[in-house]
Design goal:
The protein is of the alpha+beta class. 44% of the residues lie in helices and 15% in strands.
């Protein structure tokens, strides 16, 4: 049936009015007026900064079709477990009815929101190795505490199907004319899948993780102590991969020798703190070494899947492919210097 002129076109990703959200918040939460709500950032989730006379917090609005109510409720359950057991996280804030998740009737369909405490301090570690060591110590404690988290964790598993296969599918769609380069990426993926750790799916090597520990989701207070936030990507996965994501995310496309050295320096300090809780096995250290390649394949597929829906696909071209192939070739030279 043809579309009628008065029919509204469907929406794939709305930006909800901060004024309207701000008007609703005092009805849902015990917030002292006046309440100000500002649109803070558009990403995989939309984030709003909420200000009251008592301080500020952040409202996260999850994307329609990407996160279900169960996904969001499980994230809240994990955060409450961590906070109860002394891990410094930005905690979800309960509504006056003691629920945490709010359903929003958005133009594209149901979306869900949660109000979170603001993590104290600044998000940039500034290369301070003491801060990075403290972060490693906090992540080690987090992984240990999550070994006692009641399973199942009803969220997307951070397994190789999610990290590699789904991303390879997205990458293949833009590289039909670059089969030799695509073969290089597939070859790296095959080698990743052969790593022995990926046959283990039990704690402490495998279990609930933050899921996106790139360093931008942690704030440091004036004493250099970290608070973790944004567990939207959390799921059950390999802790060694989670650790390897941290150093590999710093200037992740920079292939200079100085950038490689800086990542090694940051990883050593992180592991110094982490090992106070648990030493990594040789197979886990091998996954840490390969984590940059896993992360790169995942992120390449991730931006092709999600960024194109909000920014268009004008940037998906041979220059984009060349940029990433330069990184992959550099990576192969590092792991196979001969």
């Amino acid at each position: 049936m043809p579309r009628r002129s008065e029919d509204r076109y469907p929406v794939q990703d709305s930006t909800l009015s901060p004024e309207a959200l701000g008007n609703d918040l005092p009805r849902l939460y015990d917030l002292r007026k006046p309440v100000e709500c500002w649109f803070h950032r558009k990403g995989i989730c939309d984030t709003y900064q909420v200000r009251t006379p008592h301080g500020h917090s952040f409202l996260k609005v999850y994307r329609h079709g990407r996160r279900t109510r169960t996904d969001v409720e499980e994230e809240v359950r994990l955060l409450l477990h961590l906070a109860k057991n002394g891990v410094s996280v930005a905690r979800p804030i309960a509504r006056t009815d003691q629920a945490f998740v709010t359903k929003l009737n958005a133009p594209e369909g149901d979306r869900y929101s949660v109000l979170f405490e603001a993590a104290p301090g600044e998000c940039d570690d500034g290369g301070d190795l003491n801060k990075i060591c403290s972060l490693g110590r906090t992540v080690g404690k987090m992984h240990h505490i999550l070994d006692s988290f009641p399973l199942p964790y009803r969220r997307q598993r951070l397994d190789l199907s999610h990290l590699i296969d789904e991303s390879i599918g997205a990458i293949e769609r833009i590289m039909t004319h670059r089969q030799s380069d695509m073969a290089t990426i597939r070859s790296i993926a095959t080698r990743i899948k052969s790593l022995s750790l990926f046959g283990t799916m039990s704690s402490p090597e495998f279990g609930p993780c933050h899921g996106d520990l790139h360093g931008g989701d942690v704030a440091y207070d004036h004493n250099g102590m970290p608070t973790l936030f944004d567990f939207d990507s959390s799921g059950c996965g390999w802790r060694a991969y989670e650790i390897g994501v941290f150093p590999s995310s710093v200037d992740w496309m920079d292939t200079s020798r100085s950038a490689d050295k800086e990542r090694e320096r940051r990883l050593a300090s992180f592991l110094e703190g982490y090992s106070e809780t648990r030493e990594l096995s040789p197979s886990e250290r091998e996954v840490v070494r390969w984590s940059p390649a896993i992360r790169h394949i995942f992120l390449m597929g991730h931006v092709l899947t999600y960024s194109t829906s909000t920014k268009g696909n004008h940037w998906v071209n041979d220059e984009f492919i060349d940029w990433h192939m330069t990184w992959f070739r550099h990576w192969l030279r590092r792991v196979d210097p001969g």
